[in-house]
Design goal:
- By secondary structure, the protein is an alpha/beta fold.
- It has one domain (33-255): P-loop containing nucleotide triphosphate hydrolases (Rossmann fold, 3-Layer(aba) Sandwich), CATH 3.40.50.300.
- It is built from nine helices and eleven strands.
- Strands 5-4-6-7-3-8-9-10-11 form a nine-stranded mixed beta sheet, with helices on both faces.
- Strand 6 (150-154), helix 8 and strand 7 form a beta-alpha-beta unit.
- Helix 2 packs across helix 8 (164-177).
- The longest helix has 20 residues, at 2-21.
Length: 277
C-alpha cells in the first residue's frame, strides 16, 4: 500500500508539472476542453471505420478494448497504443497505468516494440501498480490532466471496483479534460459499460514489405458497441506508424500486389548412369 501511495504521489507531481508547463491557448481562440472534445474526432483509416464511427473516433471520451483470446492480448495492447498515438497531439506524453499481473501475463513493455509502433519511449509515462483499485485511482488522476496526449488504463480481469460508476467517472474526466482514455481489458469478458466504443481485437499475419522486410502490424477489428450508432466490422487493417493511420493490407488494396508464383522449371535431362567395369 505504501508503494502504491508513493507511486500515486509521484504521478500527481508529474501531472502537476505538465499542467504548469502546458502552453495556454492564444487570446480569443481559447475553447473549453469539453467543447474541443465534442468538436474533434480522430481519423483512424479515412475509410470504412471512420464512416462507421460517424467521422472518426471521438476525442476526449472513454474507449474500451478487449482481446479476442489470450493469444491476442499483445495485439490488443498494440491496438490501444496505436489509438493513443492517433489521439495524442504532437509533443504531449502518453500515460499508461498497468496492473502488475497484467504485465506478468501479457509481458513487459519493450522500447523497441514501442518504437516499432511509432512511439518515442521518452514520451511514455509508465505507472505499474499491484492492485486494480490503485490502477483505477491513478488512471482517474491522469484522465483529468488536459496536458496529456492520451491515457491507457490496464487493470487485469474483472475487478469489482471497475463498475458503471467508475467508468462514468472516467468518461466525465475525459470529456472535461479533452484527453482520450483507453480502457484495456486483458482477462475480461466484454460486458455492458459506460464506454463510447468497445472493440474486439485479433492479431493477423502481416504482409511482408519489399525485400521480405517485416510488414506493418495487422489487426482484425470488430466494433462491438458504438454509443451513437450500430456495431460494425470486422475490418482487417494494418497500422502505419509514419502516417498514424490504419489502412487495408496491401494484398486487399491492390490485387496486383499478390506475388505471382511461377511454375517450377523442368529438371534438366541427366546422362544415363554408366556402369563401372
Amino acid at each position: 500500500m505504501d508503494t502504491a501511495r508513493t507511486t500515486l504521489s509521484a504521478l500527481r507531481q508529474r501531472i502537476a508539472a505538465l499542467e504548469t508547463t502546458a502552453r495556454p491557448a492564444p487570446p480569443g481562440e481559447a475553447l473549453s476542453p469539453r467543447a474541443t472534445a465534442r468538436a474533434s474526432r480522430i481519423a483512424l483509416d479515412r475509410d470504412a471505420v471512420d464512416a462507421a464511427l460517424g467521422g472518426g473516433l471521438a476525442r476526449g471520451a472513454l474507449h474500451e478494448i478487449h482481446a479476442a483470446s489470450g493469444a491476442d492480448t499483445i495485439a490488443a495492447s498494440g491496438f490501444s497504443l496505436a489509438l493513443a498515438l492517433a489521439a495524442a497531439p504532437a509533443g504531449r506524453p502518453i500515460v499508461w497505468v498497468r496492473q502488475d499481473y497484467a504485465a506478468r501475463e501479457g509481458g513487459d513493455l519493450h522500447a523497441d516494440g514501442l518504437q516499432a509502433l511509432g512511439l518515442d519511449p521518452s514520451a511514455l509515462i509508465l505507472v505499474q501498480l499491484r492492485d486494480a483499485l490503485a490502477v483505477l485511482r491513478a488512471g482517474g488522476e491522469a484522465a483529468r490532466c488536459g496536458a496529456l496526449g492520451a491515457v491507457i488504463i490496464e487493470p487485469w480481469g474483472e475487478p469489482k471496483a471497475l463498475d458503471l460508476t467508475t467508468q462514468r467517472r472516467f468518461s466525465l474526466a475525459a470529456e472535461a479534460s479533452g484527453v482520450t482514455v483507453l480502457l484495456l481489458r486483458p482477462g475480461a469478458r466484454p460486458m455492458p459499460g459506460g464506454a463510447e466504443t468497445r472493440w474486439l481485437v485479433r492479431s493477423e499475419p502481416a504482409v511482408p514489405l519489399a525485400m521480405n522486410a517485416p510488414g506493418h502490424p495487422t489487426f482484425d477489428l470488430t466494433l462491438l458497441r458504438h454509443r451513437h450508432g450500430p456495431p460494425g466490422g470486422p475490418w482487417r487493417l494494418e497500422w502505419n506508424r509514419d502516417e498514424k493511420l490504419f489502412k487495408r493490407p496491401a494484398l486487399l488494396r491492390d490485387p496486383a500486389a499478390v506475388p505471382r508464383i511461377e511454375p517450377a522449371p523442368k529438371p534438366a535431362e541427366r546422362a544415363p548412369f554408366r556402369l563401372a567395369g
